[in-house]
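WARN no homologs supplied; continuing
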Amino acid sequence: MRATALVIGICLTAVLLYGCNREAEQAAPPTTQPGAPAAGQPVLPGQTPPGGETVEQMVERWKQLAKTATRENPLLNETGALADEIAIRDPHALLSLLDLVEDDQSTPYTKILATLSVTPVVGQHVAPRLIEMTKSEKESTTRACATNMLRQIPTEEVTAVLRQLKTDSEPRVRLYAQIGLATRDPKERQEVYALWRKPETTADEKGTIIDALSQMPALEDVALMQEAAAATTLAEGVRVVAVQTLGQIGKAEQVPVLTTCSQSDPSEKVRTAAQEALIQLNARVSAQSQLTLPLQ
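OK structure emitted
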């Protein structure tokens, strides 16, 4: 079970991305072929695995699968599971999916799925390419996806680019730029809090903000996470992330909201997450109180 919140584009929303189960495909019966590793041995680069599929073939299969994604069948589980298998074999092979993000012929669904699969392996070495993909002449979903990936790269060059994109004409680009800056600068974090509370901010955008802040939580996030945990109009996955974050950074003052969530939230997943967060919070508060006892 993975909880993910990456809103990239107007077609797939953060609500769809939370709580995705990525079930690995059934492994083929172990066989030994010429060039294949012995049973139980790791697959080396360029070596044909049991079952006969190379990494390059897996990547091509991923590309063909993603091209069939639709709103009704976004293929998050299927492409996610296959990306996980590719990453085990050769994580860098996933970087070839950036071609799909940049390709004007790719559908928004394909670009979004490629971004989700590539993001875990994004590093400073791809920053120049991603920066180029944010240029105003590029297609809007390409720009949004690239901005979303750039926020994973904590360099001064990328920060400067995000500051420029913060006032971009494309709303999705602005959103991801603001979120990226919020994880680097406390002042920018306050602006994201204000954005979250604006009446025009959608539930999907709020989910994206909660997910991004939860990845690098700060004590100042407590009030926002508390609001999100109590907002039953938000997606189940958003509330799960919020209560989990409160368990990590909350104080005794957050016990009532977690208790309410654990007892009366309509979602069983949220109730369970809140119960676990209460245990975590109480243990931390108890440990801190013991540390502050005067020495005898």
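The radius of gyration is 21 Å.
OK
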